[in-house]
Amino acid sequence: MEPKKNPKSDVSRNSSLFFAVGLALMLGVAYMAINYKTYEKSDIAVDTLNLDDDLEEDVPITEQIATPPPPPPPPPAAPEVIEVVEDEVEVEETVIQDTEVDMETEVAEVEDIVEEEVEEILEVPFHVIENVAIFPGCEKKKGNAAKKDCMNKLVNKFISRKFNTDLAQDLGLTPGKKRIFVQFKVDRSGNVTNIVARGPHPALEKEAKKVIGKLPKMQPGKQRGKAVVMPFSIPITFQVQD
After folding, report:
1. Which segments of 114-215 does DSSP mark as H helices, in order?
2. What is the DSSP string of 222-233?
3. What is the spatial distance between Cα 5 and Cα 12, in angstroms, rounded to a whole number?
4. What would the pLDDT profile of 153-192 be if each residue is shown by its tens digit?
């Protein structure tokens, strides 16, 4: 007995394929249905940008100030009127005498011009003077160095004998060693002049000047055989007791 259907038209032969395709379609539709969302129109904000507001710019109206024109230059000064005055004053001509002399003209004798010598006062320091001033009592010393040493010793001895050291205690000075720097000059006559003192108290400076002013007259110092002024300086040192 022959079959009624064509074997090529058997549907069950591809049933597994159709099942897989249908399953895939169903899964796709189900996924889309699950993820599908809806939004209300009020929640959607559409931002708009109005460019016209930014492009419109208020341009300030400027007022052009008219500057006044510069003042006109001053008129030129009127030229000075020159008045012509007639010269009616008679001017006496100066007669230039002839200075030429003849053989017979006597020439007056010119007296000799006497030049007055200006005496220059020299001042030579104590350490470089050729012949130091001689203090009384140092005349017999030989050599300039010995005379300098003798003068130093005798001046110091004179000061220590005449200076009132008790004055420092009366002034209330702090105990310790005190020093007064004294400068003076021995002039060309051997006298002591230009006494200057610098110390810790004006009363001590005054006492130092008083003592130096009592130094005896000396033989003046000499430089190249001429008497000169010799400056001299010496410190006065004493101790103030407790």
Report:
1. 144-162, 166-170, 202-212
2. EETTEE-BEEEE
3. 13
4. 898 899 888 888 778 777 777 888 888 899 999 999 989 9
Q: Which CATH class is domain 144-240?
A: alpha beta
CA distance 235 to 182: 6
Domain ranges of the chain: 144-240
Q: Which amino acid is at 182?
A: V
Cα–Cα distance, 235 to 28 (Å, whole number) = 126
d(CA 168, CA 214): 20
Cα 192 to Cα 231: distance, rounded to the nearest angstrom? 10
Give the tokens for residue 42. Answer: 């009020």
Q: What pTM value is reported for the model? A: 0.48
Indicate the burial class of 149 (C-beta count within 10 angstroms; 0-12, 13-18, 19 or more).
middle
